[in-house]
Design a protein that fits this description.
Helix content is 23%, strand content 36%. With 294 residues, it is an alpha+beta fold. It binds zinc ion (ZN).
């Protein structure tokens, strides 16, 4: 709850929160004055569920979202009360939960076993971008945002060693019988100098590492999509995309599959890792994504 000064300098209390309806759609609610105080007191006791009826409120729909506010003097708030409509809502919610429950899995089960619906809407906490950028502990969260850009000068793939899968620091050796003038690739050997490979000759394969910036109403976040997840999003492997460029020279250019992502609205399940927290490093790895139909 915050203090809010209105245009005519009147001081009032304001509280914003999200409710969820039976279809798991968020309803964005703003309570003013007495309603904000009432809600604030109610949630001090940390009830496990809060069921809300607002009488004489104002509502609007904007870009498919529902907004409700208690903007009238006579707005009345009913919280977890034994009103028929609320009892009916709770009954329907329980039915809904038990429908899901028959196939529902306990928390903490592996990601692979979770339906994307459960994972995104029920089991993983939702955060806006401002909150995500301030999280100081390891956890997975869901963020929702529009892809706005790709960091300039950052390649969308890297050359990895086929054996150790790591980014390969390439050493070219020109084979002995070469006069040194023919630099075509089949005359070169690539050696991987990562520990496990120890300078042995290897083949190199491009792998995706796509960095994106997303935005919501609260801020901008940097996300990283590693090979498997990026491949799922783009529908193509790094090799297929590199092959679209003449001689594979990408020169910081983006293939259409990537540049066409700008403006797409998506939900991302991201990992706030130990590394992110310890180093205050603000690019988060995407574990899963969900395209939001426009
Ligand atoms: Zn290697």
């Amino acid at each position: 709850m915050i203090d809010h000064t209105s245009r005519n300098d009147k001081l009032t209390k304001k509280m914003s929160l999200q409710l969820r309806d039976l279809e798991y759609l968020n309803v964005y609610v703003t309570f003013w004055g007495d309603c904000a105080v009432q809600m604030s007191k109610f949630i001090e006791n940390k009830p496990s569920d809060v069921f809300v009826i607002l009488q004489f409120g104002r509502y609007t729909f904007h870009e498919g979202k529902a907004y409700v506010s208690s903007s009238f003097q006579n707005s009345t708030l009913y919280l977890n009360e034994s009103i028929d409509e609320l009892i009916d809502f709770q009954k329907r919610l329980l039915e809904r939960k038990s429908d899901l429950g028959s196939s529902g899995r306990p928390l903490g089960s592996s990601q692979a076993g979770k339906s994307i619906h459960d994972d995104f809407l029920l089991e993983t906490e939702f955060k806006n971008i401002d909150e995500v950028n301030k999280i100081k502990q390891q956890k997975n969260v869901i963020v929702l945002g529009t892809i706005i850009s790709f960091p300039p000068g950052v390649e969308w793939y890297y050359n990895s060693c086929k054996d150790c899968m790591k980014k390969v620091t390439v050493l070219y050796f020109i084979s002995d019988d070469d006069d040194g003038l023919d630099l075509s690739e089949d005359k070169q050997t690539i050696r991987c100098i990562n520990d496990v490979c120890n300078e042995k000759g290897v083949s190199v394969v491009p792998r995706l590492k796509l960095q994106i910036r997303i935005q919501d109403g609260t801020g901008i976040a940097s996300l990283t999509l590693l090979d498997l997840v990026a491949r799922k999003l783009l529908g193509k492997s790094a090799q297929e995309l590199v092959d679209k460029f003449v001689d594979g020279e990408t020169d910081n250019l983006l293939p259409d599959e990537i540049s066409n992502l700008v403006g797409k609205k998506m939900a991302f399940k991201i990992e706030i890792s130990h590394f992110n927290v310890e180093n205050n490093y603000k690019s988060f790895t995407v574990k899963r994504f969900l395209m939001i139909p426009q």
